[in-house]
Every structure is written in C-alpha cells, then in structure tokens.
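Lab channel / #folding
Pinned by the channel admin:
"Please post every new chain as: sequence first, then the structure tokens as a reply. Keep commentary short and put observations after the output so the thread stays searchable."

First post following the new format, from NK:
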Amino acid sequence: MNLEGVQQRIGYWFKDSGLLHRALTHRSFSAVNNERLEFLGDSVVNCAVALALYEKFPGLPEGELSRLRASLVSQPALAALAEELDLGSHLALGEGEIKSGGARRPSILSDALEAVLGAVLLDGGFDTARKVMQGIFKTPLDGVNPDTTGKDAKTLLQELLQKKRLALPNYSVSAIRGEAHEQEFEVECVIEPLDIRCSGKGSSRRRAEQEAARIAYVRASNA
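Reply from TO:
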C-alpha cells in the first residue's frame, strides 16, 4: 500500500494518514476496514456531483439532473475512475480476494473510491472533499451531455429517428450459437428508410440488440 502515490494521484495530502489507510483496507483483510468510510463517501459523491451538475446545467429539470447523476456515480463509472487512479494496486485485501482478482472487481474498486472520498471529508471537510472529487471527475463532468449521457443505444437511436421523422427500427434474432448455458445471440437491426442493416452480438438478446443499435446509431447519425 503506497499512501504517498495515492495522495499524489488524488491531489490531496492527509493530515491523518490513518484515514487513507483505512479507506484502502477491504473487509476481507481486517475487521477495521473501509465500509463506514464508503458509506460517507457515497453521500459525498452524490452531493458533490449533484452540485456540479446543478451549476453546469442551470436550465435542466430535476428528472434530467437525476439521470445524469445516476450515470456518473454508477458502479461501472466509479470503478473506471478508481482504475485510472490505480487504487486496485494499493488495496489491502485478504488472500481469497487477491486470488480471485478482487483488486480488479468493480464493486471493490467503486467502494474504495467512495471510501477515499469519505476519508477526505473527515480529514479536510466538505469543501476540500468537493474539490478533490471535482479533480477526479473532471473528464466525465466535462464530457457529460444531457442528450446522450445515461441513455442506452436503443433509446438514442429511437430519439434520433423520431427527430428525422422516420419509422422505428426493426430488430430480429438472426442466429443463436453455443450451448444453453453459454449462448451467443446475433441480432439484426434494420432501418429501411435509411437503407441501414447491421448486426450486433451479445450473451443475451438484449445485449445483442443494444450492440446492433449502437452501430445503427452511428450510421444513422451520418446519414
């Protein structure tokens, strides 16, 4: 556990380094762990992101702000940020978690990031925690777009076609491969008015449809 390296990456140096040590300690390693700090950090992240979005989009209604926040603070989004900070290599994990790849598990990474921000809150107060959060979240906050962020590919495609006053796409399963417990679906998406026909693959029909819609959305946007 390299506390100095973590502090450099998040841009904050702790007065009480024990808080950061606890934030990086998983329950599989010790009874004194990051679960309570993660509880605090969850609230810090939600509040700080809500404030950032409120200020960035003064005309956006509550429902849209909630959707954007949910996308930014989702487990995959937080885990991706934790990976960028390389938190996984600094976590104190039990042997079982180490062997099973716990340092790369999204749930553990997202919890660790929240715990670190909870530790910053206790060590430096809310304003400091908010500044640290804004630094960590700078890229996703800069790139957030109310028209696309948090919407799945099928929804985006449907909205695009409605704007173009075109009929909705047609999805059909073109193939199912593999054994029952490990199937791969292939779904075709057809948009006849734009002469678009593309396929997507996935472990379920829904995932295959989303992949096909993603490809179709790119093509339809340029049509």
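NK: The first strand starts at residue 170 and ends at 177.
TO: also worth noting, Residues 153-221 form a domain with the Double Stranded RNA Binding Domain fold (CATH 3.30.160.20).
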